[in-house]
């Protein structure tokens, strides 16, 4: 009795839950899924996403998959229409998958479909903004994880996603003809039909090359959107005659059962080595790539030809005084554990801060900003090189430090699309002996300063010691020393600064930045300055990826190069660039 009541209760809960959300025409359409009880739909690693190939990097660990019983015609048990999709259930523990960079063995549970209308496409993931007609999801669960814990593990489920392309081919694919012929029998919600064991999973997938795929960490695309999915999206679509695809909306009377794409929020998308990453998405600071600065504006989604671009030359004769530019409030700039890691981004060296710890407000900013990272711009290997991005009365400084902050109330994706969504604090860096004549002619500045104050050299020494650990582009190491941002800034004057509205200084150059450029520079000993050494003989042969002469990043300590620059490194094509910023 108790058991029966429990069963009934569970069924009711399931029904209420599944009727509680939808894609269109009900109270809980996708943007309101966040309000469903127990929902994870508002968290920050959600699916689906747009696969933007310009930011995809190749991962050599994404080896070939092994599929077990994908060609067996005994595995597909039944087909059902559950009100949200058409789903085929797989016999328990028959079909399996491993390899493909997955962390273990996964057992296939079911596959289902997402579609649009008879005329409009409806894949969930998009590919460089292109939506395919349909998408098939093969849902698998990790075999060594108890069922009750699957949704608590970020890799508890692995979903294999296939785009489905509509063809006009008069030769209709037999397996799809068979599968779709069942749709007429399952038009009632939760009706279920046994399959006659005529089709295998492999029959449906057809000729897709399994060695070409994309990988990222995400979520279920239906409530409760649990972030428990290792996603695989195969590069090649399954080709199916369009008349067969139209049967899905026609027979079920359900259309557009796809969730809109979700922000990446800093996640990485990787690709298996065989996946072709299109050329023409490479940018660099010199002319060694497809997109030197003069062509950044032609990059997809680029804002680099906008009216309010950065950096600029600050002409002190035309600077106006603004009495609303008050003192800043720097929160946790003195925290010695704030720097989480340091990474070689290929274009810069970046220190990533602990999430939601460091903040900036005041200083005429209209919002509270959380500090995400700081990074550097510098010149070449020559001793007297200069490489700041901004200049003051045409004077370029040896280095420039950028502290990047995001409006605290916005996601990063939203912030880069919002004017003043980002606030960047720029500090020039120069050795103690250089003169500061350019500064002293600033009319807005009342208190003329005499000599530059010293920053704490120990902090800079500690920071630069990490550079040898991130020689390889894309490498990232944990920051274990205790230094704060204040330690690096020293007692530089933070009251005198220039303000203007500008952009990110790297593609896509979004005009979302309120810039603060401090007048006084941070002093760092000459031998601790960053240096770039560009190697000749670099391989830029149009290969997708492989060993090539990296643009090695070197730094010079006490007149000596501390580590070998002549390294043959493994370089991801996207990052195989020169780091010299002198082109600016
Ligand atoms: C493959 O399927 C057959 C039956 O169709 C089953 O006996 C066998 O155990 C399956 N293999 C694996 C590895 O699950
Ligand atoms: C999708 O199908 C169309 C023809 O219907 C074809 O032109 C296109 O190349 C196909 N796309 C892919 C990626 O296979
Ligand atoms: C259709 O398929 C048959 C058998 O597979 C083949 O002989 C024929 O050439 C195909 N026709 C077209 C137009 O592809
Ligand atoms: C599907 O429905 C048709 C007619 O409604 C019926 O003849 C056929 O046997 C059904 N097929 C299955 C597999 O249930
Ligand atoms: C599927 O297989 C059964 C026997 O297993 C057969 O009777 C039926 O005709 C087949 N259906 C199709 C569409 O091939
Ligand atoms: C991976 O699969 C592709 C295509 O199926 C094949 O060409 C390649 O040799 C395979 N690689 C390995 C290491 O087995
Ligand atoms: C750089 O990459 C090479 C080749 O992958 C590797 O052997 C080496 O250990 C890496 N060095 C560092 C400092 O990560
Ligand atoms: Zn799905
Ligand atoms: Zn910068």
Describe it:
Belongs to the alpha-carbonic anhydrase family. Pfam families: Carb_anhydrase (PF00194). Its EC number is 4.2.1.1. Residues 1-18 form the signal peptide. This protein is mainly beta and 584 residues long. The protein has two domains: 2-6 and 45-271, Alpha carbonic anhydrase (Carbonic Anhydrase II), CATH 3.10.200; 322-530, Roll (Carbonic Anhydrase II). Helices cover 11% and strands 29% of the residues. The protein contains nine helices and 34 strands. Strands 2, 3, 4, 5, 6, 7, 9, 10, 11, 12, 13, 14 and 15 form a 13-stranded mixed β-sheet that branches. Strands 17, 18, 19, 20, 21, 24, 25, 26, 27, 28 and 29 form an eleven-stranded mixed β-sheet that branches. The longest helix has 18 residues, at 2-19. Residues 1-16, 434-455 and 533-584 have low confidence and may be disordered. The protein binds 2-acetamido-2-deoxy-beta-D-glucopyranose (NAG) (7 copies) and zinc ion (2 copies).
């Amino acid at each position: 009795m108790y058991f029966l009541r429990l069963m009934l209760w569970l069924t009711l809960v399931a029904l209420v839950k599944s009727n509680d959300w939808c894609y269109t025409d009900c109270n809980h359409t996708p943007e309101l899924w966040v309000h469903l009880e127990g929902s994870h739909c508002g968290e920050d690693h959600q699916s689906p996403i747009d696969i933007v190939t310009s930011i995809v990097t190749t991962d050599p660990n994404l080896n070939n998959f092994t599929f077990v019983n994908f060609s067996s015609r005994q595995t597909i048990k039944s087909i059902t229409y559950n009100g949200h999709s058409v789903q085929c259930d797989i016999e328990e523990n028959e079909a399996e998958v491993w390899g493909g960079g997955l962390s273990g063995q996964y057992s296939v549970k079911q596959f289902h479909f997402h579609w649009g209308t008879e005329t409009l496409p409806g894949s969930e993931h998009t590919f460089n903004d292109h939506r395919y007609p349909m998408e098939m999801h093969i849902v698998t669960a990790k075999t060594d994880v108890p069922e009750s814990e699957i949704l608590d593990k970020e890799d508890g489920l692995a979903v294999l996603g296939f785009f489905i392309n509509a063809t006009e081919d008069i030769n209709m694919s037999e397996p799809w003809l068979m599968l779709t012929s069942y749709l007429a029998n399952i038009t009632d919600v939760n009706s279920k039909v046994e399959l006659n064991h005529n089709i295998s999973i492999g029959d449906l997938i057809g000729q897709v090359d399994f060695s070409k795929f994309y990988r990222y960490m995400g979520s279920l695309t239906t409530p409760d959107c649990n972030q428990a999915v290792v996603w695989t999206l195969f590069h090649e679509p399954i080709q199916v005659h369009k008349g067969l695809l139209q049967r899905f909306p026609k027979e079920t009377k359900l259309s557009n059962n796809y969730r809109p794409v979700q922000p990446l929020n800093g996640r990485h998308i990787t690709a298996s080595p065989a996946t072709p990453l299109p050329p023409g998405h490479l940018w660099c600071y010199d002319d060694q790539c497809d997109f030197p600065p003069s062509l950044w504006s032609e990059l997809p989604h680029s804002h680099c030809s906008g009216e309010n671009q950065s950096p600029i030359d600050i002409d002190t004769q035309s600077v106006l005084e603004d009495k609303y530019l008050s003192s800043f409030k720097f929160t946790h700039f003195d925290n010695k554990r704030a720097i989480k890691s340091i990474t070689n981004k290929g274009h810069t060296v970046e220190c990533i801060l602990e999430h939601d710890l460091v903040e900036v407000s005041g200083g005429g900013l209209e919002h509270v900003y959380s500090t995400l990272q700081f990074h550097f711009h510098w010149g070449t290997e020559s001793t007297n090189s200069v490489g700041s991005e901004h200049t003051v009365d045409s004077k370029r400084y040896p280095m420039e430090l950028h502290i990047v902050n995001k409006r605290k109330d916005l996601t990063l994706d939203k912030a880069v699309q919002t004017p003043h969504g980002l606030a960047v604090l720029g500090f020039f860096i120069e050795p103690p002996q250089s003169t500061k004549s350019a500064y002293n002619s600033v009319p807005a500045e009342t208190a003329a300063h005499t000599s530059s104050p010293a920053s704490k050299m120990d902090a800079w020494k500690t920071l630069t010691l990490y550079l040898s650990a991130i020689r390889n582009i894309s490498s990232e190491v944990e920051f274990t020393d205790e230094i704060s941002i204040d330690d690096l800034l020293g007692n530089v004057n933070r009251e005198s600064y220039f303000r203007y509205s500008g952009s990110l200084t790297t593609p896509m150059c979004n005009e979302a930045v309120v810039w603060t450029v401090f007048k006084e520079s941070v002093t760092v000993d000459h031998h601790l300055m960053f240096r770039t050494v560009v190697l000749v003989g670099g391989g830029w042969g149009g290969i997708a990826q492989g060993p090539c002469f990296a643009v090695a990043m070197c730094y010079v300590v006490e007149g000596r190069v501390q580590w070998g620059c002549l390294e043959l490194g493994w370089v991801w094509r996207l990052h195989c660039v020169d780091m010299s910023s002198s082109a600016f």
